[in-house]
Amino acid sequence: MKKGHLAPKHPLPMRITEEINIQLALGIKYIAKRIGPRAAEEKNWKEIMEKARNCSECGECLKRCPFQLPIPDLIKENIAWYDRLRAQ
Ligand code: SF4
After folding, report:
1. How far apart, in whole angstroms, are the C-alpha atoms of residue 6 and residue 36?
2. Ligand 1 mean position, distance from CA 16 (Å)
3. Whole-number Å distance between alpha carbons of 75 and 88
4. Separation of 72 CA from ligand 1 center, angstroms?
5. What is the pTM of this model?
6. Domain ranges of the chain
7. Can you give the pLDDT at residue 83?
């Protein structure tokens, strides 16, 4: 397993795999509500969501999430949502 991604403001720091920023990949919908559809074209968000596509569904984050969130499923949902936003 590659070490790498860190969700810096997560209550439980999550250093996991694939350099995925879980906190931001899960939060993009809320950010987009604040800054609008241009969120999809922001360079940082593109990088965050492209890295999120590397989720291997290994489940390491599930063991560490204090809220028992279905993180891999939520990441997939947000990638689909992000792709629809970019297609508009
Ligand atoms: S399931 Fe995806 S987000 Fe969770 S630790 Fe594995 S690669 Fe990272």
Report:
1. 26
2. 7
3. 20
4. 6
5. 0.77
6. 22-87
7. 92
Q: Which residue has the tokens 């949902």?
A: 77
- Determine the atom of ligand 1 nearest the C-alpha atom of 60: 5
CA dihedral 69, 5, 26, 58 (to 10 degrees): -50
* pLDDT, averaged across the chain: 80
Mutate to test the pocket of ligand 1, among 21, 51, 57 (most ligand atoms within 8 A of CB): 57
**Mean pLDDT value of segment 41-52:** 87
The answer to whether 60 and 10 have CB atoms below 8 angstroms apart is no
Residue 5: per-residue pLDDT = 53
Q: How far is CA 53 from the centre of its chain?
A: 9
Cα–ligand 1 centroid distance for 34 (angstroms): 27
